[in-house]
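INFO batch 0412 | record 1 of 1 | parsing
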Amino acid sequence: MASAPAPEVDAVVVGSGPNGLVAAVTLVEAGLRVLVLEAAEQPGGGLRSEQLTLPGFVHDLGATVHALGLASPAMRALDLQRAPDGHSGLELVHPPTPLGHAIDANRSAILHRSIGDTAAGLGRDGRAWRRMLAHLSANWPGLAASVLDATHLPPHAPRELFAFGVRGLWPASLVTRTVFRDEPARALFAGLAAHAAVPLGQPLTAGIGLMLGGLAHGVGWPVARGGSQSVADALVARLLSLGGELRTGHRVTSLAELPSARIVMLDLTPRQVRAIAGDALPARYARRLDRWRYGAGVFKVDWALDGPVPWADPALASAGTVHIGTSEQVARSEREAARGRHVGDPWVLAVQATVADPTRAPAGKHTLWAYCRVPNGSTVDALPAIEAQLERVAPGFRERVLGRYVSSPATLEAWNANLVGGDIGGGATDWRQLAARPSLSLTPWATPVPGLFLCSSSTLPGGGVHGMSGYNAARAALARLN
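INFO prediction complete | emitting tokens
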């Protein structure tokens, strides 16, 4: 009896976002022959960088700040600062201050690397801030492993999860009402928690604020020198140096198109998985993917500026990330976007990467990007609202603008199909879809189809440039090979 033909490769990874690339590197490090297929002409997914506005101004199409990447067990294990073949590796650079929160033109809150300096600036809420975050920031490796490594609880996890405490399960709105007394601390924590991209009345949103605040104090919020594309380039360099293969400009429309392989890894959200896998998926699992809910979208703007942002509060000039809005505006923006409604004065998340990395713009010039939350698939032009918020806390901002590039939810989805309706998290991150991401299972990265795995941010632990979804999926696949 003839034996089955040998597979053409050991593993095929579809999609070269951070999770797909981390999965590919993890597999090739285990000795597998790995092929990565990417639809775009440039690898990286949400890590791509381009000169969107004017020559010499480098803008990140997606993520810029890499606190999760610096703390992630997967990224730390890869050690991308160590480049293959003697080439220069990835360089992460820190702004003088991780985060500022502009409440209005006359009030700001500053999150310093030092928890003591931060507490001192929060007045009578300083003690509560220190009490909430001191242990987490001092023990950030355990915090990151406990939250991001969904395959098992590391030995120190119970200690770190205890430090997280019951408060990590709370809605962030409950923390802002009951823990803090004044608006600066309330706004600062609300902005941190709003990175969850769900209403702040949802359970677990306080945990997002605690994690990001703890990491801001513990490791900082750095950016990649030269643009976030350099993170993708470092992952690709590691893949190729180990014998892996990458093909760009190769769009996959069906599993049948793929070369034969023992493992197929999809760095895709459920909508794309259903389109590609088709009838190969069992009906029950297919229905689960069909019920996947996407979260609110974002409306993003990139600017080329002829100088630094003219913040009314000079302390904001040193912050890599700036949140804008009152605690009430933050809560209302997230709540209404989730309900499919717009607000005229949304809270705004802005990143001034050139504060840490002046190589992204010509001498004396700067870049800035900002987004606000909008309903999924929104077609409303949010540019006036975003610039109005910036002008409110940085009078004269519009006069600094040399060029701008506007990304609506449709624009975002057009350059990265995983950003469905402008959802940058791979699907709503409420407690239901965190518990079952994308299905309720001890190995949610595995599908019922033998050898077929999912590794996108639609799987645990969710969105962010940490690579852990890819790392977890690759380890699950390797375990099933043995």
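INFO post-check: The radius of gyration is 22 Å.
INFO record closed
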